[in-house]
Design brief:
It is built from 13 helices and 20 strands. Helix 1 links the parallel strand 1 and strand 2. It binds adenosine-5'-diphosphate (ADP), aspartic acid and magnesium ion. Adenosine-5'-diphosphate (ADP) binds next to loops.
């Protein structure tokens, strides 16, 4: 007997028939003698709909109230999924995040899980119930409802698996595993049988939304056995996230390409080139809990320098306002501007560690297509570039081909 956490995404619970399908799969696992915890997302499109509704009443919705609103999508699907299970003769109980007691910090719309109380779930599982838990949500220490950021049900799934000491966490979605890149953009993309945890972390952080990055972080920290599978197919092993590189005997140099349309670039021109400048620019941004991704500071000339960094598109205006209010006069910047028509493309692979020339191959491929690179950042296993948004898909396609990811 194993304890298995199964997470089903929005398309997998998009209508009653699909929810029945989920229930049938859970029933099969129960019939094999396993204990099952099910985590569900809202029906596909539902969270977007709720966000739009909120924005009709307030352009930049109050975050506490926004979380109150957008957490409701999952409350519907847990009830529906429990009904579908009960209809199949399976004992099932639904739980909101707060009912489980998934304790988070109070960073509304992007809260982090701090603790999960497993007692109720354990007792239910031991009594033969399937526990159906709402993804994407928790509650802070004061009992306010919080959400975990877009795609956050993945994190609920993995965090529950970690807390319960589950034998496996299965992420069921609308593709049958992790591909070399988003198969919706490059139809030639191939499914990977396995991918190292490090690579998956990098792909997720660079924008592959098949897994939310925090879910991968949890899996790494607590060594959760994590697999991505299709909820639309009966068979198939999906993609296993492995912890040992050696498990993956023949390492390709590049495993995958990720991209991200959600970032915006902020440029601070003509700041004095002296110690403390980065801190004065990024300190107030961090204080406002705005995540910064890429950062570039130019070499100073004439005693001044330019500073560029990227943030989430949703937070560009907030960041610009903070800089204009707090930093511009203080640090004496000549100009502060934002650009949200950018996109980031990243090639990822642990094989990069032992191979030179990957960056130059990437830059040559983009140059041959006349694609201008606006920013570059690298890590041991990744090279990321910012390009104009309109070139994104072209860039992904040509890189996918150049690195022969379409070849079996
Ligand atoms: P769910 O609603 O099940 O959480 P998501 O839409 O969040 O599903 O994630 C699955 C989607 O991720 C796929 O439909 C696919 O378009 C996209 N995706 C992006 N990169 C990849 C990748 N490397 N491999 C597989 N899917 C990817
Ligand atoms: N429903 C939430 C979203 O759309 C969480 C999730 O699907 O994982 O982002
Ligand atoms: Mg998702």
């Amino acid at each position: 007997m194993a304890l298995i956490v199964q997470k089903y995404g929005g398309t997998s619970v998009a209508n009653p028939e699909r929810i029945r399908n989920v229930a049938r799969r859970v029933a099969r696992y129960k019939a094999m003698g396993h204990q099952v915890v099910v985590v569900v997302s809202a029906m596909s499109g539902e969270t977007n709909k709720l966000i739009s509704l909120a924005k009709e009443l307030m352009a930049e919705p109050d975050p506490r109230e926004l979380d109150m609103i957008i957490s409701t999508g999952e409350q519907v699907t847990i009830g529906l999924t429990a009904l579908a299970l009960i209809e199949l003769g399976i004992k099932a109980k639904s739980y909101t995040g707060a009912q489980v007691k998934i304790l988070t910090d109070d960073a509304y719309t992007k809260a982090r899980i701090l603790n999960i109380d497993k007692h109720k779930l354990k007792a239910d599982l031991d009594a033969g119930y399937v526990c159906v838990v709402a993804g994407f949500q928790g509650e802070d220490a004061n009992g306010n409802i919080t959400t975990l950021g877009r795609g956050g049900s993945d994190t609920t799934g993995v965090a529950l698996a970690a807390a319960l000491g589950a034998d496996e966490c299965q992420i069921y979605t609308d593709v049958d595993g992790v591909y070399t890149t988003d198969p919706r953009v490059v139809p030639e993309a191939r499914r990977l049988k396995s991918i190292t945890f490090e690579e998956m972390l990098e792909l997720a952080s660079q924008g592959s939304k098949v897994l939310q990055i925090r879910s991968v972080e949890f899996a790494g920290k607590y060594k959760v056995k994590l697999r991505v599978l299709s909820s639309f197919e009966e068979e198939g092993d999906g993609t296993l996230i492995t912890f040992e590189e050696e498990e993956n005997m023949e390492q390709p140099i590049i495993s995958g390409i990720a991209f991200n349309r959600d970032e915006a670039k902020i440029t601070v021109l003509g700041v004095p080139d002296k110690p403390g400048i980065a801190y004065q620019i990024l300190g107030p941004i961090a204080d406002a809990n705005i995540d910064v991704d890429m950062i570039i500071q130019n070499t100073g000339a004439d005693g001044t320098t330019d500073f560029t960094f990227t943030v989430h598109k949703n937070e560009m205006n907030k960041a610009l306002n903070i800089l204009r209010d707090k930093a511009q006069s203080h640090i004496g910047a000549r100009e502060i501007s934002g650009d949200d028509k950018i996109a980031k493309v990243s090639v990822v692979g642990v094989g990069m560690r032992s191979h030179v020339g990957i960056a130059s191959q990437m830059f040559r491929t983009l140059a041959e297509e006349g694609i201008n690179i606006r920013m570059i950042s690298t890590s041991e296993i990744k090279i990321a570039v910012v390009v104009d948004e309109k070139y994104l898909e072209l860039a992904v396609r040509v890189l996918h081909k150049a690195f022969e990811l379409d070849a079996a």
